[in-house]
Amino acid sequence: MSQFLLVLVSGVASGAVYGLMGLGLVIIYRATDVVNFAMASLATLGLYVALSLHDRGVATLLGVLAAVVITVTAGLVVREAVIRPLGQGQLFSALVVTMGVSLIAESVAGSIWGNQPKSFPNLIDGSVRWSGAALPVQSLLTIAVAAVAMALVGYLFTRTTLGSAMRAAAESADTARVVGLSSQRLARISWALGLGLAALSACLYAPRSGLVPTALVAPLFRAFAGIFLGGLTSMYGAVVGGLTIGVLDNMAANYISASFRDTFVFSFTVLVLLIRPQGMFGTRTFQRV
Amino acid sequence: MFRTTRRYRRAAGSLAVLAAVALTANACAGQDSAGATGGSSSEIHIGAWLPLTGATATYGVAEKVGADAYFKMVNAQGGINGRKIKWTVKDNAADPQQTVQIARELVGQDKVVAIVNANGTSQAEAAFPFVLNQSKVPVLNEVGGAENWYEPPRPGLFGTQTLYEDQAAAVASWAVQDGAKKILVVHSDPAAFVNVAKQVEPVAKKVDPSVRVDRLAVKYQTTDYTPVISKVKADKPDAVIVILTSPEAAAYLKEAKLQGLSLPTYAYAPVAAESTIALAKDAAEGLKAVQLVKAPSDPDPAVKEFRTAMAKYEPGQDAGFLALWGWSNAKVFAEIAKTIKGPVTSQALTAAYQKASSVDPGVSPVMKFSAGDHLGTRSVQRVVVKKGVWTSVGDFYTPPARD
Amino acid sequence: MVFNRSLLARAALGPAAGAVLMVFMASGAIPAYQMYSVGLAAVYAVVVLSVGLLAGWSGIWSVGHPAFFAIGAYFAAYGSGHDWPLEAVILGAVATGAALGAFLGYAGARFSVLYIALLTLAFTMVTLELINRWSSVTGGDQGVPVLQLRSGLGLGTVLGGSTEAQYLAVGAAAVVLALAVPAAASGLRMRLVAAKSHPLAARTIGIAPEAQSSLSFAVSGACTCFAGVLLGLLTGFVSPDPFSLNFGISLIAACVLGGVGTILGAVAGGIYLTWNPSLSSAVGLPQPVVQGIVLIAVLLFLPGGVVPFLAKPARTLLRRVPRRPHAETPADPSPNQAPAPTGGPVLLNLEHVSVSYGGLKALEDASLTLRQNEILAVIGPNGAGKTTLLNALSGLTGNGRVSGTADFAGRPLLKARATARRRMGIGRTFQHAEVFSELTVAENVLCTRRRITPRRRAEVARLLHSVGLADVADRRPAELPFGLQKRLDLARAMAEEPQLLVLDEPFGGLDAGERALLAGHIRRLHADGTAVVVIDHVLDDLFSVAHRVLAFDFGRTIGEGTPDTVLQDPEVRSSYLGSVEGRTRPPEHTGGRSMVRLHGVGHAYGGVVALRDVDLDVRQGVVLGIAGANGAGKSTLAGILHGSLAPTHGNRETAGALRTSLAPEGRALFKTLSLRENLEVAAYAAGITGAPLRARLEETMQWLPPRLRDRMSAPAGGLSGGEQQMLAIARALIVSPDILIVDEPALGLAPALVDEVYDRLSGLARDGLTVVLLEQLLSRALSVCHEVAVLHEGVVAVHGRPGDPAFEALAEAAYFNGGPTLAPGTAATAQTSQVN
């Protein structure tokens, strides 16, 4: 039983990271129609900066803040420099451009900070004992921080006028223009928010995995699976999908077969999608002539 | 406005195409000029493919730095019998196809006399048909390799790296000698790890027939070791042998410490790296492992020479285990090349290797080659993490023979 | 498929180039160390071709091709280890690739582009995991050698990694590329591209997108598996390393670089993939950086790829001669007015057909009969259910529920799939000319056929000539003006000589000359024995071709008659003009200072002129009505008055800093947002925040009817049409506008609700707000406005005061005929005596 609990908690902790990252992806996708493949590698740049600061004796919390700021800045620069010139509605081109950005960012990180794995500090040390099992406080913190971040995002989108405006622009860019909303400004805010969430999730993930330039590729793929599972346009879907993937992944590794966990997770996702092509929470669009 | 944007785009497009053409032309030109300098009698031109980008860049970059330091030092001291060593390294991004392309360029265009100190098992294997069989150019001191490379010996293929299987044997006998009766092997799941993990049981039983050995497979590149540790706990072993990559081993150690699991833990050479300590921090304390070389911190004069040369020729680079591998391989090559009287050709190198019955690089075990044995050594160095530093324990050790 | 000479010549280019290359290789002109790379480039070219054609022709971007590539390579390795003949290995690999591809394509047809990417990603990950684990066959990560493959037909033995393998790779790639050339000219490609670029329109010409994507993925997968076998032989060793997701990304990069869907582009892509490492080392940058830069630069500066970019100037040069496509007029259409049919056999019989979407009934209990040799016009105001009727006929009702019965030529119609209706003999056109943008004009018509013979080509050429498109047959539709696109849409519908042609607003967006031409075509079709159902808002043109007219409103039939009589039906007339019993006219009001003034304003969308030469003056305190039939240009004018749409001609002047507010046509609420949020967002957009926002919100809520005030937290999507309209107006009001512009507030509302909305609008006007009302129903406009301008085909036909006794007749004439033709004498006075 205690093993089940351990597996469950660490699955939820991983799932919280995927969910947070997926939330960032969904926010950016809804606002600008860009599937931001470069999000993970931009967050990696932020992590390296945070680590450098930490090595110079800066408090970890400030480091996390720096990671968020760097990631957001890099993301906004990328958007203005190479995504916006593509024009509206270039779904595939934008995706491929972000792939290109991701290749460059990972390589640059490698050449500046080296390819050797580095350790990323825990935000908090220690563990909690519970019936023979030790839960790392870091895992619990991960879950808590992710939950708070998600709640804040939820508050922003449902309780504030800015959030309403962002939802409005995501629902219909044309109507938003008629009403007079500045779509560029909202798009920038969405990118900043999405990348900020990515950086935060990276800071939660890195202590466990260590830091190499490609450290965040694996959680990014899991986050992708999560948002497809949940429905590309649904923020709840991103969170629920990420959590599902995290828990499923751990359960599959532990109770089915460690060797076939990718097969299991992705087959499950594809099966769900074959039954519900729009994902669990996605909405179906109807084309009319 | 719209028109001008389009015109601008077209202009930029033309420019991009032109630039690409120019670069490609430049690339070809560059290759030609490189080709002209091959085969000179004042230098020994050798080459290598290394993963300088991609997933295994860690190995390639560090290895290159170590070997570069050695070759620079030797060249500064006048070279080998008056000949300077020119070592051409190309990035293969760990891709077999690129490796074949590089091999053909090195052999066909740069006219290297040998491939020395390259990296990758399957990558090298893809290049063997051309390099070894067709061109008769030797492949020397490759990092990686498998048992079937040396049994039977292949013409022109010589290795300096104790096989992973022998490393497993050394770890197994070490654990049993320390008194373990029930050993659990935690290993990653790709075949390269499985094959190594399988070697533990027979050797352990050979040393002490009453030992029990179990195996636990973990998905490659797992970061969450919580479930693994609880399984290890449930198994209640006396000792654990980890056949994992360095980051995986670090994740294992951290989680083990967190869950209060303190068992004697042994590992094979890839784990005995600085990155394991960097990642696991104090959870790595007391970890035992075997290595191909002495610890870089060793007071041995040969290792000291390495540290000095690194500081001088590759300042700012880590003088760690991986760099020392590169250094050691370069040194073995140079020591054997020294024995050649006359021009250093592919044939001469092959012959010299077969006659090199005892080469002592100092930092690694004495290499003993012969016509029937193309693998220089089966020995390892035992190392332990003490106060956050890998430290050599005793002298080189040869594990009991495997069946 | 037809092999004309030029096609054969182009198809021979591949093998010819391959042969030349092989001669070079044999003669030693290509250095030995580059031989492997040449072979590798050939293999990569095949893979890039597979990925690129799948993307270019079917719109499927696959990252699953590394897996297919791997499967082929491991087939070679396994076959070599078990002494299979070469042919068996190739056959096995190709069959496996085709089967897996067909499955992925079939499953993927249900998904959008991004979901297919995930599906194929999952396929790659699962395949790689299996390869790594199944080490008894694959050797796991250690890899397996490919020693040799012997031909079962006695054609010799290919050693792994040998020179013969290099020749084999080049030769095989040349053959595959050569096969791709006729495939590119075949009906298959056209149908694939048609299904990709407009799935819905494709269904109406009998193309089922699912089958197409399954087929193309199967072919693509098979080719890639074949390339995998070649790779195994070429390298002589197979391990999992090369088949990574990174390789999938590189493949996409190579496709994009060369030009998606072009054969030469695939070769360029293969070359790029092969020599990218050399390029990187020459530039001195790491491989991923070069790859990333190339990817971004190409997408930004050469979105079409390098090959099309270089080919374009060449093609323009060749095409200097026919410069203006517009000049041609088609062969003179046949007689002016077809004889009215005299009771031919019944072709189509609809009984009690209803279509509903969720709770909304788009078509209710429609019944009609159509005889062969008859042209039936269906009229009705916007939202009356006309297009839904056409969609029910052509099977494009989506997820709507269809009930009732319909017989077409004696067979039940409603149960037939959309793709089957083309075969039954029904063709249709679309309001916006939904042509296949990625095919040429000729291909747009050719793709209606599965097999393309010289006879078909000749037929299509004749057809295009008859509609006046012969000169532009090789152009893409996007290069043509809208009128020609509509002709193309018509030609495509006519291609298989259907028994019934369904035309959706064929006159909309055309100028007078084009409309006359079109009317001629419709008459000629009729003369050739085709029955026609046509809907449109341009009544005069419609009536000039129709034999019989059916009037619709609120999803049901309200009247029927000949073109001469139908408008005399009061119900039909009022559905257009409205009826206004019991509403009191507002008092005369000339208005204060000028708020917004338009001078010579015109607007065009692409080539379509929506508005021309409009002069308008909106005065303070006035309710200005702009009446016009659908398509007259009202919404365009609303956007220009609002300021959110910049006119292409003329200028707009405002009296100082002015806040205008628009309640757009169709309400355009944010349906997922609550009522309160809809209001807040509008205020936020105008820069009102904090306490002022709360105050404005409070005030605006008071304006709303109580039943809405109680539901401020409910999502706006759940409101009824009238309530939504109320909210839309409130959303426009919350910013305290100086001018309120309301576009078609009564659209789709029940009469009682229309009254409520208008009462509230009148209330606002009484309080002194300046209001511009855009209205489809003339009488309604006349009843509530101080001034009314009638818009007809983008021109203000008359402008005057409802109080003026002569104005009503004048306005009515202008509404239907564009000018006061009924009373030409009064026209001048009316035009000049407008407002002061």
From TrEMBL, chain A:
InterPro entries linked to this entry: ABC_transp_permease (IPR001851), BCAA_transport_permease (IPR052157)
A Pfam family it matches: BPD_transp_2
Keywords from the UniProt entry: Amino-acid transport, Cell membrane, Membrane, Transmembrane, Transmembrane helix, Transport
CDD domains xrefs: TM_PBP1_LivH_like
Family membership noted in the UniProt record: Belongs to the binding-protein-dependent transport system permease family. LivHM subfamily.
PANTHER family in alphabetical order: ABC TRANSPORTER PERMEASE PROTEIN, BRANCHED-CHAIN AMINO ACID TRANSPORT SYSTEM PERMEASE PROTEIN LIVH
Source species of the chain: Streptomyces cylindrosporus
Predominant location: membrane
Topology in membrane: Multi-pass membrane protein
Protein name in UniProt: Branched-chain amino acid ABC transporter permease
Residue ranges crossing the lipid bilayer per the database entry: 6-27, 34-51, 57-79, 91-113, 133-157, 186-207, 227-248
Subcellular location: Cell membrane
UniProtKB/TrEMBL annotation, chain B:
InterPro entries, per the entry: Leu-bd, Leu_Ile_Val-bd, Peripla_BP_I
Membrane-crossing residue ranges in chain numbering: none
Residue ranges of every copy of the Leucine-binding protein domain listed in the record: 43-386
Residues spanning the signal sequence: 1-29
Keyword list, A-Z: Amino-acid transport, Signal, Transport
Domain of life: Bacteria
Gene3D superfamilies in alphabetical order: 3.40.50.2300
Alphabetical list of Pfam families matching this protein: Peripla_BP_6
UniProt-listed SUPFAM superfamilies: Periplasmic binding protein-like I
Family label: Belongs to the leucine-binding protein family.
Descriptive protein name: ABC transporter substrate-binding protein
Native organism: Streptomyces cylindrosporus
Phylogenetic classification of the source organism: Bacteria, Bacillati, Actinomycetota, Actinomycetes, Kitasatosporales
TrEMBL record, chain C:
Positions of region (Disordered): 321-343
Chief location category: membrane
Domain annotation ABC transporter: ranges: 348-579, 596-818
Top-level taxon: Bacteria
GO molecular function: ATP binding
Keywords: Amino-acid transport, ATP-binding, Cell membrane, Membrane, Nucleotide-binding, Transmembrane, Transmembrane helix, Transport
Classification via InterPro entries: AAA+_ATPase, ABC_transp_permease, ABC_transporter-like_ATP-bd, ABC_transporter-like_CS, BCA_ABC_TP_C, BCAA_Transport_ATP-bd_LivF, LivM-like, P-loop_NTPase
UniProt subcellular location: Cell membrane
Transmembrane segments: 7-30, 36-55, 60-78, 84-106, 113-131, 167-188, 215-237, 249-273, 293-311
Membrane topology annotation: Multi-pass membrane protein
Gene3D superfamilies in alphabetical order: P-loop containing nucleotide triphosphate hydrolases
Homology family: Belongs to the ABC transporter superfamily.
Name under which the protein is recorded: ATP-binding cassette domain-containing protein
